[in-house]
Design a protein that fits this description.
- By secondary structure, the chain is α/β, with parallel strands linked by helices.
- It has a single domain, classed as 3-Layer(aba) Sandwich (Rossmann fold), CATH 3.40.50.720.
- Helix content is 41%, strand content 16%.
- It has eleven helices and 13 strands.
- A seven-stranded parallel sheet has the order 3-2-1-4-5-6-11, with helices on both faces. A two-stranded parallel sheet has the order 7-10. Strands 8-13 form a two-stranded parallel ribbon.
- Helix 5 runs parallel beside helix 6 and helix 7 crosses helix 9.
- 42% of the residues are buried.
- Bound molecules: nicotinamide-adenine-dinucleotide.
- Nicotinamide-adenine-dinucleotide (NAD) binds next to helix 1, helix 5 and strand 5.
- The site of nicotinamide-adenine-dinucleotide has 28 residues, from helix 1, helix 5 and strand 5.
Amino acid sequence: MTEPQTARPSPGHALVTGGAGFIGSHLIDGLLADGWAVTNVDNFDPYYAESTKRLNIAAHLDHPNYRLLQVDLRDAAALHGALDQPHAAAHAGAYSVIVHLAAKAGVRNSLLDPLGYQMSNVIGTQNLLTYAHNHKIRQFIFASSSSVYGDCPRLPWSETDLDLLPINPYASTKLAGEQLGYVYSRTFGLRFIGLRFFTVYGERQRPDLAIHKFSRLMLAGKPIPVYGDGSSERDFTYWDEIVSGIRAAMAYSASDYEIFNLGNNRTIGLLDTIRKLEEVLDVKARIDWQDWQPGEMRRTWANIDKTQRLLGYQVKTDFDTGLRRFAVWLQERLRLESRKTA
Ligand SMILES: NC(=O)c1ccc[n+]([C@@H]2O[C@H](COP(=O)([O-])OP(=O)(O)OC[C@H]3O[C@@H](n4cnc5c(N)ncnc54)[C@H](O)[C@@H]3O)[C@@H](O)[C@H]2O)c1
């Protein structure tokens, strides 16, 4: 077996977009701990509460190696102007890598606002690639999604599957991002690594995602909406595996364009997920059965052979453990929220 080509680079200056969000804030925790200088570009998109994102980054704000640029990726002039300003940290220097996580996320909402998704996810990505090219920033990591597979018939999905058939506007913007990355790699010499995340969960999870949304409703004694017959399945991935995959991709140098699945290679049914939530939250769920939603995927399932081989990726956290950690975090977050409103 070939050894993964991912020796950890010495800390440099990472430009992270979407660093106030769920995954980005966890990534930045680790980068700062390891001595990186970090510039976080985030516009606090109103898809979910700004106060939640402010809590995610509270511990970063006073760190001398951290700066927050509150700019919108859609505005090329504002973005490029802000990025041109030097970071105050003495050793920061030029950006050594871009980790592009910012996006309008959420499948269902993309059906209501397809243009908004195109603007943030495609035009925003284009604006960032232009900046990377103009400033010769060599390494560009892109948060793609399992949703690009859409109706792809072979399971578990593999990066060699080329019949990608997205079925919602969000997914099509992620596929467009991967394709733009190919252009910049093939034609302009950028190293572009697209990472297809499979339903990420754990502490700080976005409030629109099923585990978080259901948990809040269950704890409030309210019914949870289940679409269709409840037979859908997800390949859930704990956030720490995603962050490890991003860190490995930041160090990857064996080729100039790659796509990797970051998943778990194990699916869990929706009704089983609800049962497990009942256990960790110690509360019974009441189900509000609803019609199947257009644009939703029935099943997601990752083949992770390539990611294991080339990035040294390993799944370390089983679903029950990850869910328990999420439940502990949520109880604490609810206590914090109730103190604020009291
Ligand atoms: N969480 C998942 O299960 C999952 C699965 C697949 C892919 N992804 C992708 O991973 C990335 C991170 O996801 P997340 O769950 O942390 O989402 P998140 O919404 O918590 O974080 C995204 C961040 O991007 C920012 N943002 C949005 N539009 C912006 C714009 N125009 N300019 C600047 N900032 C902007 C938001 O304010 C937010 O803080 C996203 O690209 C998402 O599509 C996530």
